[in-house]
């Protein structure tokens, strides 16, 4: 048989996360590659799922999602952001943010349309754009002091007659940057000038540090009506295996996304949906505690990486710290990531895989700090060997 995979998907191999996690398992290394926490979410949320399963909530939930979850999402948007969304018609529950992103791009972009991504980008974006037959244009995020940002002229230059949407991820994986209100306003202005849709990936909305505020794009003037806002319970409630996400937006955009979503999965996870509804209502205190613990883990890992000789950027949010490997005498993150298990018994992710222009990210390695303190300490101890090996 000829290559069975359709041409538009051939540039995408196995996701880097599977590859690096397999490498960690094979070599017995500490996995600071994939961003999943090694502790559970709030106990009452877990109990709610168990109770729901025992109580017989085991058949298809409604296509748009369990009403109580959509209601809880609406209340949460209102309380946190002052954003009003109708549970019926403006909120759609999805199989994690991943399905929300894919369904949004598939629903809203025609073949040949262009979608602007900030690179480095979360790897599913490019695949979703390719599946839809649309074309991606990238705008680089470059280091500026401790964080990463974009050049507004570069953003404007990326817009053309076929541009349909801009995909914005803040807090940003993999750089840890949280876009400021001014940066978001620049993106918003471009969306409004060129009548573009903003698709926003806000899965780390609650995981910002040092008092840095997460500003949803939809709260900017004129943006609610053109923004598809995507969130997920996975990162917020430390339950990445549950895959419960949601889309909020104006009715015509959400209806379009649902048209696609219904034929991808129709619906999913009834017991998890009601458990997440409970957590959104009752467990945001737990989330605040988890965020503070995460900030401390960030500091712990940053200190260790600096001591080991890495250049370290200070993330204002997310699970990840971005490092520069050049102070250690290395130049290529992909090569170092492959050798890191043998050199130090640790796995990290080469940031260059998140670029269309990998040369922009060759020197970066991404480490996850959503791990137990003793795991971080052990990783740091092992990484200290690196400097000595040179
Ligand atoms: C983890 C992650 C996702 C995927 O979210 P799920 O709810 O697990 O599908 C999407 N975007 C970013 C930036 C992520 O880090």
UniProtKB/TrEMBL annotation:
Keyword Transferase: yes
Top-level class of the enzyme under EC nomenclature: transferase
CDD domains: AAT_like
Alphabetical keyword list: Aminotransferase, Pyridoxal phosphate, Transferase
Superkingdom of origin organism: Bacteria
Pfam families tied to this protein: Aminotran_1_2
Cofactor: pyridoxal 5'-phosphate
Gene3D superfamilies from the UniProt entry: Aspartate Aminotransferase, domain 1, Type I PLP-dependent aspartate aminotransferase-like (Major domain)
The EC number(s) this enzyme carries: 2.6.1.-
Domain Aminotransferase class I/classII large residue range list: 30-383
Molecular-function GO terms, alphabetical: transaminase activity
Alphabetical list of PANTHER family matching this protein: FI04487P
Protein name as annotated: Pyridoxal phosphate-dependent aminotransferase
Origin species: Sphaerisporangium rhizosphaerae
Source taxonomy: Bacteria, Bacillati, Actinomycetota, Actinomycetes, Streptosporangiales
